Amino acid sequence: LEHLLVENLVQFFNVGSHNHTRLEGADWNDGLDMAKENGESVAFTGMYAQNLETLAGFLIKAGRKKIEVAKEIKVLLAKINYESIFAKRKLLEKYFSKISVVISGRKVSLDAAGLAKDLKAKSDWMKQHIRNTEWLSEGFFNGYYDNRKNRLEGKIGSQVQMTLTGQTFPIMAGIARPWQVRKILQSVNKYLVNKQTGGIHLNTDFKKELHDLGRAFSFSYGDKENGAIFSHMVVMFSYALYKQGYTEAAWGSLNSLYKMAVDTAGSKVYPCLPEYFNLQGRGMYSYLTGSASWFMLTMLTQV
Fold first, then answer.
1. Element (H, E) at 223
2. What is the 3-state secondary structure (H, E, C) of 244-261?
3. Cα torsion at 190, 191, 197, 201 (round to 10°)?
4. Which residues pair with 163 in a beta bridge?
5. What pTM, to 2 d.p., does this model score?
6. Which residues touch 188 (CB under 8 Å, ≥6 apart)?
7. Which of 303, 274, 279 is closest to 291 using CA atoms?
8. Rounded Cα gap, residues 76 and 242, in angstroms
9. Mean pLDDT of the region 249-256
10. Burial environment of residue 97 by CB neighbours within 10 A (0 to 12, 13 to 18, 19 or more)
11. 4-43 as b/e, with b when 16 or more CB fall inside 10 Å?
């Protein structure tokens, strides 16, 4: 519990100039590795919001009155103004100063219901902040800010930029309202679905390298983390849709991977779930994938 509290509470306070979790060297995507100072992951802010809500639920379900945790964790439970980026950073500095060399080893007893309430309040704040600030008129969420503090998604110049990750986590976390999920599905179909293969791209073609975000966009479009049909995120998108009850769209997402995998003339691999399919529909890196476990989890618990 201490471990889970620390890794999620720290990120609640570890925010950039838009009050979202700092991207630092990467989130799930290690290709987003060039926004260390000012990058922000709106997508993972959504993930941490979901985690905090889940932890609050577990605390209530456990039915214990008191929970013992390391004394230093109390710093992360102080009451501050969540709108204040300065206050969040100051609190985080205070916490780091207490644990950077050694922790005391002392425990404190916390009221379990009070702790659950605190975690839920933080989760609710994060969710509402994303709803208030990151929904775009183009019909989807922005998922990232780069090292120049610029928004990645939406209409940038003359083109619309969109990522699948930026939509997966708001849906998964219940941030997206039903009307927003419907809009997102329309946008995914319009901007991310490959009309030839039926696969869903990880992102639109940004037409340029993004040295303020990451080396991923130095790959040719359709390869690796730059717009490939990336099994990992397609499966997570499907799971998110199932979780919120959009079964037809969710099945379409899963089935798109299956159809590409069994088209051996195009995929040029034995039927399996590779890391990604490229623009030609070829399956790449058959053994470098955690997607298979996500796929099985989705089949067993959702489908």
1. none
2. CCCHHHHHHHHHHHHHHH
3. -140
4. 203
5. 0.96
6. 140, 164, 167, 200, 237
7. 274
8. 33
9. 97
10. exposed
11. ebbebbbbbbbbbebbbbbbbebbbbebbbbbeebbbbbb
73, 51 in Cβ contact below 8 A? Answer: no
Check if the beta carbon of residue 237 is closer than 8 Å to that of residue 167: yes
Cβ count near 262 (within 10 Å):
12
pLDDT digits (tens, 9 = 90+) for 172-181: 999 999 999 9
User: DSSP string spanning 8-51?
Assistant: HHHHHH-B-TTSSBEEET-SS-TT--SEEEEEEEHHHHHHHHHH
The one-letter amino acid code at 57 reads G
Please name which of 133, 134, 130, 150 lies closest in space to residue 142, comparing C-alpha atoms: 134
Query: With 80 as the cut, is the pLDDT of residue 289 above it?
Result: no
Q: Where are the beta strands (DSSP E) in 74-231?
A: 107-111, 135-136, 140-141, 144-145, 154-156, 159-161, 229-230
- Classify residue 7 by its DSSP letter: H
Burial per residue of 143-171, b for 16 or more beta-carbon CB atoms within 10 angstroms, e otherwise: bbbbbeeebbbbeeeeebbbbbbbbbbbb
